[in-house]
Amino acid sequence: MTHAVDITSALSKAFPFLAEQDEAFLSKLSEAGTLGQLGKSQVICGQGRDCTHLALILEGTARVYKLGDNGREITLYRIGPGESCILTASCILSQEPFPAIAVSESEVTALLLPAKTVTAWLAESAVWRDYVFGLVAKRLSNIISIVEEVAFKRMDRRIAAYLLDNITVFKRQIQATHQEIASDLGTSREVVSRILKDLEHAQLIQISRGTIKVINPSGLKQKTTE
């Protein structure tokens, strides 16, 4: 995607509401932004850095997380096609440094909008204003849910809920290491391993290297409320 027409097409696919509401703004967006591409596992923005651009994700997935003094990580949220980072938007509006770490989980393609453009368009475009404020409302709700889970829910319940959230009726295998689950939930690998072993002993899951298979979803769901 190196031509403006390709960027416009990618924006329409990832952000269909833009084309539906205002085609002129979609073209304006394509012209104002620059295309950025990152490989897997690259740092997009580090803690304490200034936010000079807002990335609109066209392809791929990025993870935003906090790193504690003890070295433990907790995932705040992930962003994929059609999404952007609430913390980046917040930092641009408040002119504060980025308070977390953002990394690419896969190859990522994004449209990068300069910070000045992001703020100027809030006063000029109802479509853009609705998108940014909607983004803030959605992600803020997610982050509050994470805070509630960390503060008030037992880890065994959280792990059971995590497993259920990552399966479907047709796919009950989760490709994740114990460390990856620990990083997502803000705990240690040892705690995750112990709880998973307990769930396996209860014949709710089967554990193999890098894979967890849920064999009793209804039993696992009971664990979330015990």
The percent range for helix content is 40-55%
| Major sheet size, sense and barrel closure | 4 strands, antiparallel
Q: List SSEs in N-to-C order.
A: HHHEEEEEHEEHHHEHHEEH
Strand content: 15-25%
Average the pLDDT over all residues and give the rounded result: 89
Key features of this structure:
single chain; 226 residues; 10 helices; 10 strands; elongated; disordered N terminus
Show the helix and strand layout:
Blueprint (H helix, E strand, L loop, with lengths): L3 H11 L1 H6 L1 H10 L1 E5 L4 E3 L7 E7 L2 E6 L5 E7 L6 H9 L6 E4 L3 E7 H10 L1 H27 L2 H11 L7 E3 L2 H8 L3 H13 L3 E4 L2 E4 L2 H7 L3
Antiparallel strand pairs: 1-7, 2-6, 3-7, 4-5, 4-6, 8-10, 9-10
Overview of this structure, please?
The chain has helices at residues 4-14, 16-21, 23-32, 86-94, 115-124, 126-152, 155-165, 178-185, 189-201, 217-223, and strands at residues 34-38, 43-45, 53-59, 62-67, 73-79, 101-104, 108-114, 173-175, 205-208, 211-214. α7 (155-165) crosses α9 (189-201) and α7 (155-165) runs antiparallel to α10. It is elongated and about 60 Å long. The longest helix has 27 residues, at 126-152. The strands form three sheets. A four-stranded antiparallel β-sheet has the order 2-6-4-5. The protein has ten helices and ten strands. 50% of the residues lie in helices and 22% in strands. By secondary structure, it is α+β, with helices and mostly antiparallel strands. Residues 1-5 have low confidence and may be disordered.
